[in-house]
Design brief:
The protein is mainly β. Helices cover about 5% and strands about 45% of the residues. It folds into six domains: about 120 residues, Immunoglobulin-like (Sandwich); about 100 residues, Cadherins (Immunoglobulin-like); about 100 residues, Cadherins (Immunoglobulin-like, Sandwich); about 100 residues, Cadherins (Immunoglobulin-like); about 100 residues, Immunoglobulin-like, CATH 2.60.40.60; about 210 residues, Cadherins (Immunoglobulin-like), CATH 2.60.40.60. Bound molecules: 2-acetamido-2-deoxy-beta-D-glucopyranose (NAG) (5 copies).
Length: about 775
Amino acid sequence: MEIGWMRNQRQRQVLVFFVLLSLSGVGAELGPYSVVEETERGFFVANLQKDLGLGLTEMSTRGARIISQGHKQYLQLKVQTGDLLINEKLDREELCGSTEPCVLHFQVLMENPLEIFQAELRVKDINDHSPVFTEREMIVKIPENSPLGIAFPLSNALDLDVGSNNVQNYTISPNPHFQVLTHNLSDGRKYPELVLDKELDREEEPEIALTLTALDGGSPPRYGSAQVRIEVVDINDNAPKFGQPLYEVHIAENSPIGSLVVTVSASDLDSGVNGKILYSFFQPSEDISKTLEVNPMTGEIRLKKQVDFETLRSYEVDIKATDGGGLSGKCTLLLQVVDVNDNSPKVTVSALTGPIPENLPEIVVAVFSVSDPDSGDNGKTISFIPDDLPFLLKPSVKNFYTLVTKRALDREERPHYNITITATDLGTPRLKTQHNITVLVSDVNDNAPAFTQTSYTLFVRENNSPALHIGSVSATDRDAGANAQVTYSLLPPQDPHLPLASLVSINADNGQLFALRALDYEALQALEFRVGATDRGSPALSSQALVRVLVLDANDNSPFVLYPLQNGSAPCTELVPRAAEPGYLVSKVVAVDGDSGQNAWLSYQLLKATEPGLFGVWAHNGEVRTARLLSERDAAKHRLVVLVKDNGEPPLSASVTLHVLLVDGFSQPYLPLPEAAADPAQADPLTVYLVIALASVSSLFLFSVLAFVAARLCRRGRAASLGGCSVPEGHFPGHLVDVSGTGTLSQSYQYEVCLMGGSGTSEFKFLKPVIPNLTSQ
Ligand SMILES: *[C@@H]1O[C@H](CO)[C@@H](O)[C@H](O)[C@H]1NC(C)=O
Ligand SMILES: *[C@@H]1O[C@H](CO)[C@@H](O)[C@H](O)[C@H]1NC(C)=O
Ligand SMILES: *[C@@H]1O[C@H](CO)[C@@H](O)[C@H](O)[C@H]1NC(C)=O
Ligand SMILES: *[C@@H]1O[C@H](CO)[C@@H](O)[C@H](O)[C@H]1NC(C)=O
Ligand SMILES: *[C@@H]1O[C@H](CO)[C@@H](O)[C@H](O)[C@H]1NC(C)=O
């Protein structure tokens, strides 16, 4: 701009100069002189006096002077000598700019006479300016892969100097890609042109900085430089490329949705859109689409749903990276699902036998398998059952187990077992599954019925009503079902003659015992038989128990008077001396009762007497004694009726008639029995042998009492002649009732009975049982 302005200035000055010239109408008459610009003041240019051919002083006398255009006086004239000197430094560029040659016109004016001479001064250029680039930095955008030889014009440099001092040549800093050519413009100026020598690759070198130097033709040359920044413009010549061709990733199953699987990354050497990458799955399977999602911008791949190792253990998918120019690259994602112990073992019972019979050794109870879909330790299982059970877990083929019994089972001990099979895996944490199996033990008839008692004792009263329930037996069976159903029965009696079946019966179902007919204590005091209990097993088992039926006595027998005999051929008459003391033992009523116990306790009382008050009867023993002294006045014959009554309820009784004859004589005082005379062999007491034989004829339940009483009244000093009683003499051996072929139970008792006395204190007393074969008297 400034330069342009200066150029305008100069043009104006030159224009003025030419106007003046044309006014004067004269051409250059002096010169041309020349001077190099920037010459110092006082420099000698020419001697005008000599050039004008004037005399020595003529110039001064004629008042010669220099007229210059413009304000500055570049020249001075020494009028004395006529020397033309430089008055002020000349700057060619200021004076002429680019105009060449640079000519300054001036006039030499002389007065007296007026004379004007045209003169020229040429100002010669020196190289005092360096080339200058108006742009300190030039930016050149060149697409990569541009063809070789392509040229890019650059801005030129300016140099105020002219001619060869102006810019002559351009050079560029050494580089492999470019050279610079210098071109001529029509006005002679030169401009640089950048020419591509070697292909550009933006991805390799996106920017190249060069220094452009302009040289002028001075000697030495001056130069100026500018920066040339070459920006290599991208073209989409690179496809996106993944950092690795295969991404192998492990992810734990059950990872939450949204978990980051991996971030894939591709790079594109291109820039801008050409380098902008979008990620996507390449032809994903349906599984992949459901499971994974990729962030197109960041390449983050996340879970869309949970992965399950047991369903799918790995996923493989290609991932595509596409740049804005449509080029793409691929990589492969291999996703391995890592197992997590998320499955408990599964117990599958494949065979379960029904109830197992007791008493059998090792039996297979169940077959089952254990599975765990996890892998590794997570899928390894161990199984066990509680060891306090009589069962054993036996591993069989792969993951199969059999549950067997350890030993024979006893249903009665335990009828069923709840077996908990526990299967755990070896993962962390361990997962476990329990499976319960109930094993029923089925019954085998291995227990006989057992009676609640080994023997039963039942009481009954005799004379019962027929079909009376007399009691029950009971047996239980520890087995089950039919094996425990008990049937009762009467067992055949040991005595084959006992008509058991006609006496008692048993309810087969409940063991109730019934008397089939009325029992007679006097015929059968006790009955012993065995009952059986049998179960319904096969084979059946049975057991037995003893039943003892004790018949209870009822008062069904009246007292029976043994003495005195009532209907003997000679009625018994007791003789009593009139001199007898009070309390004299007249007789003794002896009676028996077929019953027993209280029913057989007899008491005696005097029912009737010819002379009341003369005789008394002892209630307990039936002794008949005198109650007072006898006198002559008392009648000789007396008749007494004695009532014998038992203690039953109601009481039964019998009466007996006694005949007493009073005779004259003395009574012998009663002599107590000496101690030593207690022995019946030495003493001679009133001994009564009483043999009672009781016999019963079982078939008819008839009771008969055959009583043989041998009463030997052996009162000292009194022989049998005293009494007129018809008493069979001699010893009666124990009477044994014939055991006939009809089956007769017999019992025989023989007692030695001693009636001691002679006085009122004597007693009728059982001494001892008599053993028949020892009584040899
Ligand atoms: C320009 O400069 C270059 C390098 O310095 C040189 O090779 C070449 O000859 C020069 N050209 C001219 C016309 O001086
Ligand atoms: C440019 O000019 C120079 C002299 O200034 C000359 O030597 C050269 O041949 C010219 N080049 C062209 C291409 O005209
Ligand atoms: C076995 O399990 C059943 C049902 O759960 C239960 O009724 C029974 O009492 C259990 N038996 C044993 C011996 O635990
Ligand atoms: C198995 O039996 C055990 C013990 O009786 C009980 O605690 C558990 O709940 C049962 N398991 C199943 C699945 O019935
Ligand atoms: C005695 O009389 C009874 C009935 O009064 C009779 O049964 C019995 O046979 C008789 N005894 C004798 C020996 O005559």
